[in-house]
Amino acid sequence: MVFVVNIYSIFCNNLGFYMKKYIQYLVKNNNGSVLIITIITVVVMATLGAGISGLFSTSIYQSISSSFSSRAYYTAESGYRYAVYKYIDSNESVDELKNIVDNGNYTLSGGSKFFIDIDSFWLCADGNQVDVSNFRVKTPIKLPDKYTQGTDGFLHIDGTKIIGGSILFKDTIYNYSAINWINNSTLEFNITSGTITASDGDEVYMACEFTYSGNLKTGDSVLNIDSNPLKTFVPLNGSFSLITNSGNTYDLLYEKADFSNNKLTNIKNLPGSNTIPSSGVILTGTSHVVLKKNIELTSTATSGEGSLSATKNIKYYQPLYIGFLAKIHKFSDSFANLDNWNSKAGGHSIATVDGNTALKVDSTKTAGAHQNQATGTYITADYEGRQIQESMIEVNK
Question: What is the tens place of the pLDDT at every residue in 320-353?
């Protein structure tokens, strides 16, 4: 496109030179009427030229801007993948995630940049504490804004049990009446019943109480949850433990924390853990849900410079249950058929290549108009029923 504009500039410059010579010839030979017509022609051509130049400039700007916008989006996706696999390669070390956040911007070879921000939705005891009513905790990565001051609720410390509708640790009930921010990495809970004894680093989870009597199955929602403590839960794609009135524990996933209706929607069994049987589980009276290790990861990427730069933010809600990330990011298929795949755009089939089966793209689909038109193919893996769950994504465009 720049080459075309340069050709146009050369053309205009040469045109101006020859028109000037021609006008001098007409003046010299006293051809007045022809001179007037020529001047009008020159003015019209100059006006058209300015308009064409503007069209060229606008087209080039839109094309470059669209390219940087797409590049920023895919760079943000790459940032998330980078964080996930650094975490897996470190044997699922939370310290590795904190290092990624602390390292700031990451610059790619093409000049695009991304940085990662992570809120951790669990806590750790801040130092050894014996028989305290003001229980101090610290964040392993970064505190979520959802932990607002004044919120009341329940705490569940790793190793505790809930019996008879109460959270117990060494025969002590852990309820809190308020959350106080000490600094950007430390909180203090006002314990309202009993005192807490904990060792430095003991993992602390936010919990909610709910009352339900009936048969709860996967695919159902957990209803009637206390509204205040529920606000401390990750909004999408969370892992949690359901602890019944009788003390049984089930490790589950929920699709969404519905804060308006005080419920966790579309619960599923967490792969490889204590699961709800297909027949469901009978609940009576008061039970608890305990949010386990979850993060909110925001990958922000920038591509281009100055007025042509573009920025994209992608937000992921990711459980950190041990072994879970490695499992959900592994999906293999021998392509004996397309039973595990859904064609969204274009056509696909199975082909044989060197004696092996492979996915073949039979046709593509074109969508959009003018400079936004794109041609491609789109196929998705069908994870449903295979105990594999993708991270839910929010895109801020």
Answer: 876 656 455 555 677 788 887 878 788 888 888 7
Q: Give the integer Cα–Cα distance in Å for 148 and 257.
A: 17
| 311-330 b/e (C-beta count within 10 Å ≥ 16 → b) | bbbbbbbbbbbeebbeebee
Q: What is the Cα–Cα distance from 174 to 195, expressed in whole angstroms?
A: 8
Name the H helices within 282-368.
324-328
Q: What percent of the chain has pLDDT over 70?
A: 70
Distance between CA atoms of residues 107 and 115, nearest Å: 9
DSSP state of 177: E
Q: Give dist(CA 382, CA 385) in Å, integer.
A: 9
**Rounded to whole angstroms, how far apart are CA atoms 263 and 198?**
31
Task: Give the closest residue to 296 by CA, choosing from 121, 85, 138, 73.
Answer: 121
Backbone angles phi, psi at 182, to 5 degrees: -85, -50
Return d(Cα 101, Cα 78) in angstroms, integer: 15
For residues 376 and 29, give the distance between their C-alpha atoms in angstroms, rounded to a whole number.
Answer: 63
Rg (CA), the chain: 31
Query: What gap in Å lies between CA 383 and CA 380, rounded to an integer?
Result: 9
Tell whether the model's pLDDT for residue 389 goes beyond 50. Answer: no
Instruction: Report how far residue 2's alpha carbon sits from residue 116's, in angstroms, rounded to the nearest whole number.
Output: 36
Cβ atoms < 10 Å from Cβ of 180: 14
The residue type of 186 is T
Rounded to the nearest 5 percent, the helix, strand and coil shares of the chain are 25, 40, 35
Q: What angle do CA 251, 325, 317 make, to 5 degrees?
A: 80
- What single letter denotes the amino acid at residue 353? V
Position 1 scores a pLDDT of 38
Question: 374-386: b or e for each residue (b if 16 or more CB lie within 10 Å)?
Answer: eeeeeeeeeeeee
Cβ atoms of 264 and 289 within 8 Å: the answer is: yes
pLDDT score of 62 more than 70: no
Rounded Cα gap, residues 77 and 236, in angstroms: 18
